[in-house]
Amino acid sequence: MTMTESAADPRFPVGTFQRDVEATPERRREWIGSIAETPARFRAAVEGLSDQQLDTPYRDGGWTVRQLAHHVPDSHMNAYTRFKLGLTEENPTIKTYDEAAWAELEDTRSTPVASSLTALELLHERWVNLLRSISDEQWARTINHPDHGPMRLDMLLAMYAWHGRHHVAHVTALRERMGW
Asked: Is a pLDDT exceeding 90 seen at residue 5?
């Protein structure tokens, strides 16, 4: 699927994640910048939405905006832990989790979106500080993902930079389609 084809697909408004990108120091700085911007971009994307709008799926069969607002910090908390494991252990096997089941838990329905937006901001402050401290040699360290096999930290960085843009675009594309 090309980026153009993906952009037309509401599941992948910024295209699918590309694992085969070259991780140069410049690209890593760009990806860290993208991760640093994610909390403000997500906050702006949901700004002013009513409860009814927050409970609107971003596409047929997709999660609601509210579920997305809670999913991003859930996912990025796991990412932060994965980076710390990758920096302190030799090729650790990371724990996966059932994202769809997490999105259905009561805290996703009852916790204000503002709480998850604040959690995302605070988490990213620490995560970006960690990411900026990683040496060129450390970016080659790996984690073992049970579903994807060994992953270098720089590819994990690229994936989470994409992940933030991906979910912000779910909300902004919905707002555009709905005229919000």
From this structure: no
- Taking the whole predicted model, whether its pTM rises above 0.70 is answered as yes
Q: Which helix (H) or strand (E) holds 88?
A: helix 65-88
Mean pLDDT, range 7-20, rounded to an integer? 85
- Residues paired with 142 in a beta bridge: 152
Band the pLDDT of 7: cuts 50, 70, 90: low
Rounded Cα–Cα distance for residues 133 and 119 (Å): 22
How would residue 60 be classed by pLDDT, with cut points 50, 70 and 90?
very high
- Cβ atoms 112, 119 nearer than 8 A: no
| Cα 132 from Cα 32, distance rounded (Å) | 7
Task: Using DSSP, state whether 50 is helix, strand or coil.
Answer: coil
- Counting other chains too, the contacts that 148-156 makes at CB distance below 8 Å and 24 or more residues apart are 150/91, 152/23, 153/83, 153/86, 153/87, 154/23, 154/28, 155/19, 155/23, 156/79, 156/82, 156/83, 156/86
Query: Which domains are present in the chain?
Result: 24-55+62-178 (1.20.120.450)
DSSP output for 140-164: G-EEEETTTEEEEHHHHHHHHHHHH
